[in-house]
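Table S4 entry, Paraoxonase.
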Amino acid sequence: MDLNEEDPEVLELRISGSKFNMSSFNPHGISTFTDEDNTVYLLVVNHPDAKSTVELFKFQKEEKSLLHLKTIRHELLTSLNDIVAVGPEHFYATNDHYFVDPCLRSWEVYLGLSWSYVVYYSPNEVKVVVDGFDFANGINISPDGKYVYISELLAHKIHVYEKHANWTLTSLKSLTLNTLVDNISVDPVTGDLWIGCHPNGMRIFFYDPEHIPGSEVIQIQNILTEEPKVTVVYAENGTVLQGSTVASVYKGKLLIGTVFHKALYCKL
């Protein structure tokens, strides 16, 4: 794998919408959905004033812009981390904590309470579909739309669920890894999972510039089989990249994102 000092081409998008407040836009998880008319929708987890919403945009290709359509709020969408779209206004989302209060959230993690959960949202129905996670984090879906993948950060696990017609999820298997698993990207061609990981997680939660957090990217192939192949594609002690959270591949290129550091562009 070659590290590339030159940045890839970046498409700079304008955001429009009469009621959208850019000053309170603090994006977190993102997902896209393309409908039968090839209209592309972008759904973004947002944290305005330390709260949780989902912002819905439509991609306008000719204008190279995003049109803000609506803000989604709900009492079950309280501590959003990541999202995967299954329709223009339909999605699964992870709540990484049960509590909203900062003090209670700290105790929730300290006591190891596995109370975080995953929600299915649509304009007509909102429900908890899976719970009992020790920090539900990343979420994504298989290219054929049949399986949902969820990362349980503090348990070091990737969970595989079968998606049903009524949007419920049934657990199929879990894979335990020797690292803290953050966000999940899925290769649309191969179905491989690419996961941004934290090999020394305590350094993420308690950042110390004298003991910087490292970065790690894991690829999982054939996850639905009895013997999936797990490969550490990138591992580094933090001198180049600190706190990797996400990794995405496209045509032989790998882009790694972080919590608070920079992004890294690599040739595989």
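The chain has two helices and 21 strands.
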